[in-house]
Specification:
five-stranded antiparallel beta sheet, 47% strand, seven-stranded mixed beta sheet, 0% helix, mainly beta
Length: 298
């Protein structure tokens, strides 16, 4: 598992390993801060990995800005950077000359263009990245997902001119699962709530039979304060993995009614497979959240 760990100098992508998904051994940071003046000088975090059959690729979030101490939360802009490794545990070598895609003025990704899940589709790779912009007159920024494309994982990516779903959806982060039995993609993401400040208040799922076309109406709530047993206000960063006949859903959360970025735990929920598209009257949930495991992390 690659996760964000907050240290005395800032946030770094770190590694933990497990044999049963419940008990984890922390191995420490696998990326380091960039040099002063480099775009990842204040944070090299949120690492997304992809194995192309020969090599391991990591797309990670870099930024030269953070909030004040002691939290040092990564601040805008969020940029997508690249590293390569011999295995999922590394060692990871930054590819400083590779610029996958960064923010662009006057677009839906003018403030952030941070990494998301990579999948191969046809003759190209698609990356479902997190995008942020600000509409004139809005107090808060607007967030959504975009799709970037490339045929070379060590080269530049082309960002679609329009987002995957409208910026009014207020979502970020992505994790995909393909349900073969119904030939449908399920994309798990965070919804951003606003209550005096912005925070991730739920995990949503969108579904589509076509990776290139997503209907914002086709979504449901997977996990929020209504069915999470230990974190009632804030639910963050989903990541899914199939384990036999169940789908494990990892997420982070501070617990209770907290919305803090700090002192978060990593939780695990289970969805029974196969996933099905809910009928309208069933839209609060996908599958069954049959077990919750609270795993304490730094």
């Amino acid at each position: 598992m690659h996760y964000d760990a907050a240290g005395s100098k800032g946030w770094l992508c770190s590694l933990a390993v497990s044999k049963d998904l419940l008990t984890w051994e922390k191995k420490g940071p696998i990326l380091d801060f960039g040099k002063p003046g480099e775009v990842d000088s204040k944070s090299a975090s949120y690492g997304v990995t992809y194995h192309d059959g020969k090599e391991w690729h990591m797309f990670y979030l870099g930024t030269p800005n953070t909030s004040g101490p002691p939290s040092l939360v990564p601040s805008f802009p969020y940029l997508t950077l690249k590293a390569k490794g011999k295995g999922p545990a590394g060692p990871w070598i930054k590819q400083k000359k590779v610029v996958p895609f960064w923010t662009k003025p006057d677009t839906y990704y003018s403030i952030t263009a941070s990494p998301g899940q990579v999948v191969k589709h046809g003759g190209e790779y698609l990356q479902f990245f997190s995008a942020t912009t600000r509409k004139p007159g809005n107090r808060c920024v607007q967030r959504t997902l975009g799709i970037a494309r490339t045929k070379d994982l060590d080269g530049p990516w082309t960002v679609d001119p329009n987002p995957m779903v409208p910026i009014e959806e207020q979502i970020e982060n992505s994790s995909l699962y393909y349900e073969k039995s119904i030939k449908t993609w399920f994309l798990f993401t965070n919804h951003i709530g606003i209550d005096r400040s912005e925070y991730t208040d739920a995990i949503w799922v969108y579904w589509s039979k076509d990776l290139n076309k997503w209907d914002p109406a086709n979504k449901a709530v997977v996990l929020d304060g209504q069915n999470c047993t230990w974190s009632k206000k804030c639910i963050g960063l989903p990541s899914v993995v199939q384990v036999g006949k169940r789908l494990g859903l990892f997420y982070d959360a501070p617990g209770g009614n907290s919305t803090s970025h700090m002192k978060r735990h990593i939780g695990l929920a289970w969805l029974d497979l196969p996933l099905t598209v809910p009928r309208n009257e069933e839209k609060p949930l996908i599958g069954v959240v049959s077990k919750l495991q609270k795993c304490k992390e730094e």
